[in-house]
């Protein structure tokens, strides 16, 4: 057909509603052919209108237009066919998605629902911005991609532009509402001609689809003991009667006691998220259309979707959804156990025994560590700043594992009760939930004069000091004398510091200068993050190199030296400190800042050359807020055991959610300004080489 499309199964057109798959020989991709039988010239016009509408829509969540084939169809050739060629969506429609969910016995999670809703809002707002109204939003017209969570809006056969709708009203040549799907149409569509051109109809359809995703059943459910189907409405003579029936069903859906429609909150957990959905859906499905959002552009501003849509439209993954989405929890556990068993069988008996011993030792160490180990914070002490630093460190897996490795070894310059290294190790060993903050602060004062008389209350300074002191205790080396510590058992430099080589090469004389340094944390201004241009990644602020400098090797050379940064060591963490000008930043600026934070960073985004490119995930945040004219610090950590974010506010511990979006909302709601971000690898950590580690404790 047309020389471009091959492998077409003609029988599919009869069995699959005029749709068949084909192979596009130009691109090598599988595409979808939508056939239209031309029995009237109006049919040809409708097919061309759909193709033209799809052609002008270029959006990541709208099915992509490929071609339109209507070659040599004369006016008299009634009975010919046209073909609309579109992108293939392997996951089928949302009808298939819902069927797979029900078959697997799964419930829709908060992230799945919000992500699908945000994608559809993004697509619809794009259409409405171009004055295009879809007019037939339903699960059968939303198509699912291969990953079972990316969706695209398709089938624009009933769509209209607002301008063409206005012109048709003026001329009287209006289209009847036969293209609507009654089960998903708004009650007012048959009341008058002008109403059915409104984007509010798409808002209603969107709400119907999202509620069906949340509850995995049609929103009308079962009413007064019978299914809410519309088969009987096919014989209704007047569209007005159908409109009344739809309106009555909508009222019953919310008010009649006999209705057994499943409530979102009855089916699903995490009531904060789904409570927000319930409010939005009630507004979007109001029987009075004036109470609904005017179009999808208003929906796009809903706080529940803002962060998701922002990340989607900037090419980022808004959240992490564990695949495969249609796997039963029990099946997933069996699959995981089978995989572990298969891996164990491939290893020798000696290796297995060694691995079991290591796992038991590690488990024992984790059991000894309570989930909220901290420093004492008696009334008036105000140790929130130091507590947040200690808590976020002890929840870092690489930090805990390394301390557990070192517990049988000694250290240098021990000060007994006033030794920072001993105090941190004690938090792992003792069964109590806390240790004395006075001893810990005295230990810090001996190595950093800024802590004397408690003049400084900054978690970033505390973090920096703890790392420097750990290096001194483990290597007997003053980091002021030698910045780049190369000892393989140094916890601080092996796990947290980045060993960087800066290479400046002249573009004319090719003279090269090298500079070596160790960097514990990267700094960025909050103002720069807030003022990031659209579609600009947060990591661009971390990789800025400054202007090129003049070559000073020889007077005749007028070249410029270009900076190339190379990472020498296999870093396991990325620490970022945030500088805020105003301690009482406006709420909107905090929201923009948090939305601009990325959850994933690749080493190659920070350095020109890396030994091994890998991905780091955000798993720790220290933030502050102003309470009663003083700074109050708290921490958020991602617990990899429960796979949930936890909020640590001194003595209080609160599980937030699995979803990062809920953490963002929690921070924004409480006006908390992040001042330190920690990113870690989620893969297996590299163990310290303890060959040259001190065997005994040396007192100072």
UniProtKB/TrEMBL annotation:
PROSITE patterns given in the database record: PROTEIN_KINASE_DOM, PROTEIN_KINASE_ST, USP_3
Record-level GO BP terms: negative regulation of cytoplasmic translational initiation in response to stress; protein deubiquitination
Domain Protein kinase: 1-305
MF terms (GO), sorted A to Z: ATP binding; cysteine-type deubiquitinase activity; eukaryotic translation initiation factor 2alpha kinase activity
Top-level taxon of origin: Eukaryota
Residues covered by the USP domain: 373-682
InterPro entries associated with the record: CC_SR_Kinase, Kinase-like_dom_sf, Papain-like_cys_pep_sf, Peptidase_C19_UCH, Prot_kinase_dom, Ser/Thr_kinase_AS, USP
SUPFAM superfamilies noted in UniProt: Cysteine proteinases, Protein kinase-like (PK-like)
Keywords for this protein: ATP-binding, Coiled coil, Kinase, Nucleotide-binding, Transferase
Pfam families tied to this protein: Pkinase, UCH
Coiled-coil residue spans: 327-372
GO cellular component: a single term: cytosol
Family statement drawn from the similarity comment of this UniProt entry: Belongs to the protein kinase superfamily. Ser/Thr protein kinase family. GCN2 subfamily.
PANTHER family: EIF-2-ALPHA KINASE GCN2, EUKARYOTIC TRANSLATION INITIATION FACTOR 2-ALPHA KINASE EIF2-ALPHA KINASE -RELATED
Name of the featured protein: Protein kinase domain-containing protein
Annotated organism of origin: Oikopleura dioica
Top-level taxonomy: Eukaryota, Metazoa, Chordata, Tunicata, Appendicularia
């Amino acid at each position: 057909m047309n020389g471009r499309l091959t492998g077409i199964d003609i029988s599919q057109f009869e069995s699959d509603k005029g749709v068949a798959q084909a192979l596009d020989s130009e691109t090598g991709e599988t595409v979808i052919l939508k056939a239209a039988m031309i029995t009237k010239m109006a049919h040809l016009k409708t097919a061309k209108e759909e193709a033209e509408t799809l052609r002008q829509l270029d959006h990541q969540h709208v099915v992509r237009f490929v071609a339109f084939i209507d070659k040599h169809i004369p006016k008299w050739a009634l009975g010919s066919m046209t073909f609309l060629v579109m992108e293939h969506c392997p996951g089928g429609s949302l009808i298939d998605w819902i069927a797979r969910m029900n078959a697997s016995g799964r419930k829709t999670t908060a992230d799945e629902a919000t992500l699908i809703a945000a994608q559809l809002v993004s697509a619809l707002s794009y259409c409405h911005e171009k004055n295009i109204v879809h007019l037939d939003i339903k699960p059968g017209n939303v198509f699912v991609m291969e990953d079972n969570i990316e969706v695209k809006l398709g089938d624009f056969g009933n769509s209209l532009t607002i301008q063409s709708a206005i012109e048709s009203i003026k001329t009287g040549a209006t289209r009847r509402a036969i293209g609507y799907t009654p089960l998903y149409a708004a009650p007012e569509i048959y009341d008058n001609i002008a109403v059915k051109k409104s984007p509010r109809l798409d808002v209603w359809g969107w709400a119907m689809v999202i509620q069906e995703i949340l509850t995995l059943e049609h929103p009308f459910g079962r009413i007064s003991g019978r299914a809410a189907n519309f088969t009987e409405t096919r014989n209704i003579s007047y569209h007005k009667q159908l409109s009344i029936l739809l309106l009555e069903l909508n009222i019953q859906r919310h008010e009649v006691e006999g209705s057994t429609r499943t409530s979102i909150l009855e089916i699903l957990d995490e009531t904060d998220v789904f409570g927000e959905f319930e409010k939005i859906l009630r507004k979007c499905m109001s029987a009075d259309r004036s109470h609904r959002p005017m179009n999808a552009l208003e929906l796009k501003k809903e706080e529940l979707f803002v962060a998701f849509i922002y990340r989607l439209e900037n090419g980022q993954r808004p959240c992490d959804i564990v695949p495969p989405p249609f796997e039963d929890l029990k099946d997933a556990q069996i699959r995981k156990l089978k995989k572990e068993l298969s891996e164990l069988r491939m290893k020798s008996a000696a290796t297995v025994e060694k691995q079991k011993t290591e796992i038991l030792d590690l488990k024992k160490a984790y059991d000894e560590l309570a989930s909220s180990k901290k420093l004492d914070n008696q009334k008036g002490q105000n140790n929130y700043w130091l507590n947040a630093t200690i808590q976020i460190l002890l929840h870092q897996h690489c930090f805990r594992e390394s301390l557990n490795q070192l517990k049988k070894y000694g250290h240098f310059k021990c000060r007994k009760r006033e030794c920072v290294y001993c105090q941190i190790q004690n938090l792992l060993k003792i069964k109590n939930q806390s240790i004395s903050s006075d001893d810990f602060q005295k230990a810090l004062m001996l190595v950093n004069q800024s802590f004397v008389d408690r003049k400084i209350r900054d978690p970033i300074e505390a973090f920096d000091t703890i790392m420097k002191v750990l290096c001194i205790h483990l290597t007997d080396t003053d980091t002021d004398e030698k910045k780049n510590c190369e000892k393989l058992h140094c916890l601080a430099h092996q796990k947290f510091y980045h060993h960087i080589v800066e290479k400046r090469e002249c573009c004319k004389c090719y003279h090269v200068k090298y500079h070596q340094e160790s960097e514990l944390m990267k700094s960025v201004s909050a103002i720069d993050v807030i003022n990031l241009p659209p579609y600009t990644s947060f990591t661009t602020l971390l990789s800025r190199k400054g202007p090129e400098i003049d070559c000073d090797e020889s007077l005749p050379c007028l070249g410029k030296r270009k900076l190339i940064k190379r990472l020498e060591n296999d870093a396991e963490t990325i620490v970022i400190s945030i500088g805020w000008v105003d301690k009482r930043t406006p709420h909107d600026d905090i929201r923009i800042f948090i939305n601009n934070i990325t959850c994933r960073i690749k080493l190659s985004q920070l350095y020109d050359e890396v030994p091994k490119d890998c991905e780091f995930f955000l798993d720790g945040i220290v933030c502050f807020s102003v309470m009663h004219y003083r700074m109050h610090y708290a921490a958020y950590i991602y617990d990899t055991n429960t796979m949930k974010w936890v909020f640590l506010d001194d003595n209080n511990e609160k599980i937030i959610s699995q979803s990062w979006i809920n953490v963002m909302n929690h921070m924004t709601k409480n006006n908390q300004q992040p001042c330190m971000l920690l990113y870690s690898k989620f893969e297996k950590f590299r163990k310290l080489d303890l060959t040259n580690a001190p065997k005994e404790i040396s007192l100072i």
